[in-house]
Q: What sequence folds into this?
């Protein structure tokens, strides 16, 4: 069976503890919405942003390598121009699982960030919104996944 983006996202979320790099200062931002929903669903999400000391009641770390205890996975919700630096931080921290968020906009991935992951032996998750892989995602996120071909990809992988 071929692994799909959706499978990779679900495997990532099965870890239950990971960093969310790019947690915004703006309470109404999408990254904060994702952070709140992950916390609500019981995930131990560690926010990372050098400009914040605390986010959603959780200690915020300036870089991935500053997280204590360390994480081995990171969800990057950074602008594409900053994602390569976030990947460098992940590699320096020993993070082996990287998810470059993609929602309705351009997402976090950049060619440089993807190349850095590949050079470090990391197969990044790209072109997938966390809500598409999150158990119990609402109808909007399932519909969004259908438009993006995520669910078709899963059905092809299982031969349905």
A:
């Amino acid at each position: 069976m071929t692994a799909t983006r959706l499978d990779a996202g679900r495997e990532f979320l099965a870890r239950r503890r990971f960093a969310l790099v790019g947690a915004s200062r703006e309470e109404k931002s999408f990254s904060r919405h994702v952070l709140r929903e992950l916390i609500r669903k019981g995930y131990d999400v560690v926010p990372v942003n050098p400009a914040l000391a605390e986010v959603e009641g959780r200690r915020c770390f300036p870089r991935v390598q500053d997280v204590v205890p360390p994480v081995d996975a990171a969800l990057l919700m950074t602008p594409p121009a900053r994602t390569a630096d976030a990947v460098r931080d992940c590699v320096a921290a020993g993070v082996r699982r990287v998810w470059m968020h993609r929602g309705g906009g351009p997402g976090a991935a950049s060619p440089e960030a993807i190349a850095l992951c590949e050079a470090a032996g990391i197969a990044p998750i790209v072109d997938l919104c966390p809500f598409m892989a999150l158990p119990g995602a609402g109808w909007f996120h399932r519909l969004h996944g259908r438009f993006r071909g995520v669910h078709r990809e899963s059905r092809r992988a299982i031969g349905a």
